Amino acid sequence: MAIDAGLGAIVFLIARILFGGLFIYQGLNHFLNTDAMAEYAEFKNVTAARFGVLASGGLLVLGGLGILLGVYPAIAAGLLVVFLLIVTPQMHDFWAVPEDQQQDEMTSFIKNVELLAASLVFLALSSETWAYALGIGLGL
């Protein structure tokens, strides 16, 4: 396949670094700014907001590392898919906020849908051989 050798492998590695690195950064941000993020989650009526922030931070870091390193890529991409499916409508409910907040929430909602689509692509490719990966997977 085009992602296991040559230029395709290099481009795919760059995509993994960028994509996985983004989620690792976001996940670490959950741990570094837990109080502020938990306060916002409470504002959005999230039950057990502090736990949710910490748990979602863990999902993001693990998912991002898995994509970046090519370790259990099906599980890594699955973690990101689950995170995005749960968090996107809960935290970026542009249809339920005052008009002056709708554009910001819609932008975040659309961004998350785009990240969900990319996560699904990584999930679909998880059964392929990933060049420059640690090579740990479940063969799913």
Structure, explained:
- The chain has 140 residues and is mainly alpha-helical.
- It has one domain.
- The protein is 74% helix and 0% strand.
- The chain is built from 5 helices and no strands.
- Helix 2 (34-43) packs across helix 3.
- The radius of gyration is 16 Å and the shape is elongated.
- The two termini are 17 Å apart.
- The model has no long low-confidence stretch (mean pLDDT 92).
Indicate the low-confidence ranges by residue numbers: none
Structural class: mainly alpha
The largest sheet, given as strand count, sense and whether it forms a barrel, is: none
Number of strands: 0
Topology, element by element:
Layout: H1 6-32, H2 34-43, H3 49-69, H4 73-91, H5 99-124
Helix pairs in contact: 1-3, 2-3, 3-4, 4-5
Q: Descriptors for this entry?
A:
140 residues, mainly alpha, 5 helices, 0% strand, elongated
Would you kindly provide a brief summary of this structure?
The protein has helices spanning 6-32, 34-43, 49-69, 73-91, 99-124.
